[in-house]
Amino acid sequence: MFKNEEMEINLGPQHPSTHGVLRVKLRLDGETITHCRPMIGYLHRGVEKICENQTFFQGQVWTDRMDYCSAVANNLGWAEANEKLFGITVPRRAQYIRTMLNEFNRLASHLIWLATHALDIGAMTVFLYAFREREDILDMNEAFCGSRLTTTAFRIGGLREDLPPGFEKLVKKFLAKFPTCLEEYENLLSENRIWKKRTIGVAKLSAEDAIALGVTGPVLRAAGVPYDIRKAFPYAAYAEMDFEVPTKTEADTYARYLVRMEEMRQSARIIQQCMDGMPEGPVMAKIPKILKAEVNEVYHATEAPKGELGYYLVGEKGSGNPYRFHVRAPGFINLQSLPKMAEGGLIADIVAAIGTLDIVLGEIDR
Amino acid sequence: MADETLPQPPETPEAPAGPYVYDYAASPQRQIVLPKTVPLPSLKTYQAEVKAAAAADEAKWAKQLADFEVAKAKAEAEGKDAPKPPVRAVPRKDDNDLKTPWPQEPKDADLLHLQEVLGSKVEEIFEQAGELTCQVSKDAILEVLQLCRQDAKLNYEMLADQSATHYPAAKEFAFSVVYHLTSISRRKRLRLRILVPEGFIPESACAVYPSANWMEREIYDMLGIRFANHPDMTRILCPEDWEGYPLRKDYPVVGWGQRDISFREDRGGRLELIAMQKAGQLGINLKQPKAE
Question: Which ipTM did the prediction report?
Fold first, then answer.
């Protein structure tokens, strides 16, 4: 009808479905997107520069504030990258506790994804249900380290404190009810006709494109590539855990939903195994109060809820600060694939595409 | 759209004088301490350092022995007691769990294969902390990336990360650019590294790995390295009109318009005094009760 007239509009930066301050420049032909360009940087705080001017211990506080929905996973990556830089071996009990808290964090992050993604597409009810369970996980964070969101849960070399008394009871209570909660969400969504219409075949990204664009995490696994860093390059206590890497081949929004739901089940399994096999012993390695680096560079990648979270650190001889600190944020790299997903689709579906990537602008802009 | 219809932007006012002047001397926090060393991990440098340290240790010991002989001869001549013979210092062993990963000789098949195929284009290969590093010539980076992507023995499908580091103390180069490649099928990681001088424009990796697009834009934004044949070489995180490159080592930590008095630097307690006065006006008692 208006073939010759393309319209250019901005989605965001203040739009409820952009999960923060993402701005997407869209060119539309009717309702079809012909061109899509994400514009980022509204939340840029210069975390890399700040951390280069602080000590190794202080830097961890900044990792909380990158992906604020999965602070524990960020802490784990930071602590392990530093341990690799200094050659520290962490006690086994600390590894188990780290693994357990990291999986709890994955649950919390996936729950917040489920809640907001469903809300974006129009399923209001799931939001409150998912936040109810997330609240329990945040309570556990609070019991362990005193804060709920910006946790700074771990220390370089292990943990600051052992698990608090009564923590096992909380975990048991949570694990007993969580499978029924998952069923509840699935009853609301999996066979919902509207949900299926809004997600099946929407925002497709084939495996070749995903690998070429560096996409990792559930988005890559929903395209049929069983790449999970917990299995491929095991860290923490994941080598001793028995779990599966769920994959789907449809590579659309619905497949990513199914993959994430199955991942939550596997996370619950890992938590159960951590509780059953929790070893005794110290939780902190013997390290000096002030860490002085040698000339060294490390790249340590962990499987954050959103994908591959990599920390690149360069140490300077005798210096207490990292000479160079760089974060490979999963959201930053994954967001590159948004034009590929959205172009050629309808404008209403870009909301689903943004939601299915599970982005947090705090880590994209850093 | 015609430009005349748009309202003209107001003239830019001059930058305010006073506390917002970019004056390093006035504000101690803004003073830049440039790094004096070049912390570029390298097997050659490490081996040279170890050799030099061993030679220095040996020289020190030889001097100690010579001094002892002189002192002994002198004591004998004067008829005094002979001095104590010197004891060679043993390096102190720290009682902690730190095992520093030093650079090691390359043993991995991938690194050896790369060196065999590329020959003189490889400048250095080594392993450190279980990670493989291959430093290649800066002109050959695209060729090396293509080899890593397509060679059946290497088969690195994904460019996981790309970043750069500024080394102002180095003479032959100014930056190192690192590429972290991942092979999903072979479960391996490889780090490629090039050293580029100021103003050099390395070839973009976008032709081989499209994921390099935003990472190279970020490097350009943060460190000011441009990449040739990049589809869209613009700033990504900072605004388009931003001046300077924030992650360079000569860029100050405290930016424009930030307060000049730091609480840490405030030895005279001026800020505390102001806070107390303000609180007093509001009727709040900020004074801490003295411990008994």
Answer: 0.89
